[in-house]
Amino acid sequence: MCEAAYKYKEETLRELKRCGAERVVIGLARELDFKFFSDEVISMLCELVPYFKKAGFEVAVWIGETLGHDRYSAPVVDYGYQNMELLDGRVVGAFCPLDEKFTDDIAAWFEAVASSSPDMILLDDDFRMGDNFGCCCELHKTLIREDIGENIPENFLELVLCGGGNKYRSAYLKAQGTGLV
Questions:
Q1: Which pLDDT band holds residue 4 (cuts at 50, 70, 90)?
Q2: Which pTM does this prediction carry?
Q3: Fewest CB atoms within 10 Å of the CB: 88, 102, 108, 124?
């Protein structure tokens, strides 16, 4: 990750040149205690990107976790964001992309990363990880109810997963896309 690349940048540069690499990818992890990123890590990144560019490498920054990889293993912690809720009702340690506070904070993180001027920024697609197929929290349920024009039926999970093409599945998929635009 970024801290290791910073600490060992000379050794890393030497090895990259030795093996004939053309691109450097610097990985970042969420730092939720700092609302996604600390100034210290961004400062390191702003030194690393030009360091490797000057050495002739294309430099990418990989944001390895956006909504949350830890949805099954980590306890649900209140960071002030709407946690994702799976179709079966389980609340997990990942965040809903419809939560405006979450999207404001993650956008600030992306902006801070972009300030380092990498050649590219890679975002990990952790929305579709695991068996959840998206989010069904109250924010998503509100969109679904508005779309179908009625309350969500008791057998919604069955209708979405097993009912073939229908208005419930379409509304669920539309709500998922709305949060990712």
A1: confident
A2: 0.81
A3: 88
